[in-house]
Design brief:
Elements: E1 2-3, E2 14-22, H1 32-41, E3 45-51, E4 54-61, H2 63-74, E5 84-89, E6 97-101, E7 121-123, H3 125-132, E8 137-141, H4 145-148, E9 151-153, H5 167-173, E10 182-186, H6 191-202, E11 207-211, H7 214-221, E12 229-231, E13 233-234, E14 241-242, E15 252-253, E16 260-261, H8 263-266, H9 286-304
Helix pairs in contact: 1-2
Length: 312
């Protein structure tokens, strides 16, 4: 299923396509070169991960370029039913195009977790509110701490994980998760919940549910006045965050630690563009800050020349 958005004039912005698909792809390495070449030809940028278990990534570019890349992918038998979600960005949200070969398209670090074999029950955005307000449901945010810091569903449990690899241990250590019959889980676009719900099923949880299409689909379809979402949703591109209707949020990114920043945090004396912010200032040495200042200077000079500074 293709989820499309309209825009008054497609020349005014960049089309962003988020996608993933779990499927066995024995020849995945052979797709890297032609996919990279096609993206570069159409000035499509972002990151696509290829592995034996499928594909995952987000790309942005001119609308015709994005649709050409998606058509190429769907011509591959394994990706014929590939779904994607669309939104728009006022500026190009990625610096370059990367097609990478990986062991996993989303890294959980637990072997033999296969969403094609066992996975939770999908719940459509319009049915999500009823599930998560059910007294018999425990709602779990499977994202990392820097993502949950700027927005979550009302009443959700935050595991405070720094990486998705920490999630399995968090589940094993929290025996209280068995106190209610239903487990509901969500993430940005749905991919982490594919593995997270498969893992929960293997841990003996029977009623496991996850939000189909993730937070992004919920923010697209559920009206703000009916929403149980609080805050903004972190996205892994230069937009940093999105709101209801997938409108671009107001968060900025600390270039030193990659943490999203509010307008208030940007006014902090601990914030220095490209160098530090309230979240990482105390963790950086003066040598680090000097190095970051030099990097920021090169970025500023490149911007003045109308060029892109790609960094190391």
């Amino acid at each position: 299923m293709t989820n499309t958005f309209s825009t008054p004039d497609e020349t005014d912005g960049f089309l962003v396509a988020a996608l993933y698909h779990f499927v066995s792809v024995p020849h995945f390495a052979e797709l890297r070169a032609p996919l990279q070449s096609l993206c570069e030809e159409y000035d499509v940028r972002g990151t696509l991960l290829l592995a034996h278990e499928g594909i995952n990534g987000t790309i942005a570019g001119p609308a015709d370029g994005i649709r050409t890349v998606l058509s190429f992918l769907r011509r591959q038998p394994e990706f014929a039913t590939l779904e994607h979600k669309e939104s728009w960005a006022s500026e190009m949200p990625f610096l370059r195009m990367k097609v990478r070969l990986k062991k996993e398209i989303v890294t959980m670090g637990v072997e033999d977790i296969d969403p094609n074999r066992s996975v939770g029950t999908y719940v459509a955005p319009e049915d999500w509110n009823a599930l998560i307000t059910d007294p018999g449901t425990i709602l779990i945010d499977t994202r990392n701490d820097y993502e949950t810091a700027i927005g979550m569903f009302k009443g959700a449990v935050d595991p405070n994980t720094k990486t998705f690899r920490e999630f399995p241990d968090w589940v094993r250590q929290n025996t209280g998760l068995h106190n209610k019959p239903k487990i509901a889980m969500y993430c940005t676009g749905g991919i982490r919940c594919e593995k997270a719900t498969a893992f929960m099923k293997e841990q003996g949880f029977d009623e496991v549910y996850h939000l189909k299409g993730g937070i992004l689909k919920y923010l697209e379809e559920v009206p703000p006045e009916e929403s149980l979402w609080e805050g903004a949703c972190f996205v892994f591109d230069e937009r940093v965050s999105v709101l209801h209707g997938l409108e671009e949020g107001e968060h900025k990114l600390c270039r030193a630690c990659r943490h999203p920043l509010t307008a208030e945090e940007i006014t902090s004396p601990l914030y220095e563009a490209g160098v530090s912010c309230p979240h990482c200032h105390g963790e950086r040495s003066e040598e680090d800050r000097m190095r970051f200042r030099q990097r920021q200077k090169q970025m500023d000079l490149a911007r003045e020349r109308g060029e892109r500074h790609l960094g190391k």
